[in-house]
Amino acid sequence: MSRFLKLQVNLFDRPRKQLPLFLEQIATLLAAGLPIDIALRSVGRDSNSSYFPTMAIATAARLEKGELLSDILEEEDKTFNAFDIAIIRTSETSGDLVEGFSQLFKYHKKRDALRQKLRTTFTYPAILAAASIITIIILLTVVIPQFEPILVQQKNAPPLITLMMLSSSHFLMEYGWIAITVAMFLILYFQTPPGRKQFHSWIIRAPRVGFIAESIAVEQWSRGVALLLDRGIPLPKALELGATLYVNEEMRTVGQRIAKQTMEGRQLTNSMTEAGHFPDSIIQLARIGEETGNLGTMFEKSADYLATEIQSKLEATISILEPLIIIVLGGIVALVVIALMTTTMSLNLMVI
Fold first, then answer.
1. Is 159 exposed, middle or buried (0-12, 13-18, 19+ CB in 10 A)?
2. What is the pLDDT of residue 257?
3. How far is CA 104 from CA 40, 107, 155, 224, in A?
């Protein structure tokens, strides 16, 4: 890829997000009987992306010179990962690019659908939580300090709840910068490899959320391995490539360990059981696949089962999370209001 094209990818395009559409277009054109080079040139003319037209036309030109499609696309590492290249290479070798691109498109479509579902599900609670934090900060740093001069003038000690609010306000205004500094440090730390691994470990072990994160990781792994096996890739290699599909660093380490143990002759389901991150139902389906020689189909069934379970767990978690955020925010606002009302009433009694 040229330097200018890489700059386009980094600044203007997000080709990885547009990959499913590209795969669908290529699969459709190949199914219609077009050769791969003509299909790529057609996509290059019709695509609205600033990245894919250039890449597709350049790839078609190199194909016409006799280069292999998988070798060309392997250089596009911003868009195609090792998993994608493995599917395309095996399909290219078997002469079945239509099915290869079609299955790869379906895989990415399901993965993007799950990602979009997660984004949609957690958007409202995230906004609600952010609004709650901002409201609390404003109350403690702007509203409460306005009443402090009045409270100081009282002869009698303010009510306990008022003192609590004042203390919280003083603490936040005097030491809030420490919390901001710590938050910035954690954000930067979590961008490093050790920090990212630590954060992912916390996510996996978090109550409720950890189960969902773990299930999502296993679902993506199962679906990816199923596709690799269906394309004729041997199990050890499929497991090795499948490990790269894990976004979570801890789960990726588990996947790499399972791939290594399988390559050494260890039974897959035994390794999955010892890993401790796979539900019993998934292990049982994998065991049936091992016994029947139909492991790819069982992994696909496992992914579909987990997708349904993830949906159920997400709905249950959100049904608890949203009211909890509202209750916490409402409780803090109520405490502030009670503190102010108590103070006002005590002032009125002093006047009388």
1. middle
2. 92
3. 16, 5, 76, 9
Closest by CA position to 225, among listed 258, 253, 249: 258
Quick one: how many helices (H) and strands (E) in the chain?
A: 16, 0
Confidence of residue 8 (pLDDT cuts 50, 70, 90): very low
- How many alpha carbons fall within 13 Å on the CB side of residue 21? 14
Structure confidence at residue 288 as a pLDDT band (50, 70, 90): very high
Q: With left for phi above 0 and alpha for psi between -120 and 50, is residue 33 left, alpha or beta?
A: left
Q: How far apart are CA 227 and CA 242, in angstroms?
A: 10
* CA–CA gap between residue 272 and residue 255 (Å, rounded): 9
> What are the residues whose beta carbons fall under 8 Å from the beta carbon of 291, sequence distance 6 or more?
none
User: DSSP string of 267-283?
Assistant: -HHHHHHHHS-S-HHHH
Q: Show the tokens assigned to 125.
A: 């609670």
Q: DSSP 3-state assignment of 106? A: helix
Q: Say which residue, 198 or 154, is predicted with more confidence.
A: 198
Q: Tokens for 148?
A: 């402090």
Contact (Cβ atoms closer than 8 angstroms) between residue 83 and residue 228? yes
CA 159 to chain centroid = 47
Taking alpha carbons only, the member of 240, 222, 247, 249 closest to residue 307 is 222
| Residue 331 and residue 160 in contact, taking contact as beta carbons nearer than 8 Å | no
The pair of structure tokens assigned to 62 is 């190199």
pTM higher than 0.90, yes or no? no
Distance CA 313, CA 209 (A): 9
Q: Is 336 exposed, middle or buried (0-12, 13-18, 19+ CB in 10 A)?
A: buried
Distance, in Å, from the CA atom of 219 to the CA atom of 214, rounded to the nearest integer, reads: 9
User: Is residue 158 a contact partner of residue 346, using CB atoms and an 8 Å limit?
Assistant: yes
Sign of CA dihedral 168, 174, 180, 182: negative
Helix extents (H) in 206-294: 209-230, 235-243, 249-263, 268-275, 280-292
Q: What is the DSSP string of 334-350?
A: HHHHHHHHHHHHHHHHH
3-state secondary structure of 281: helix
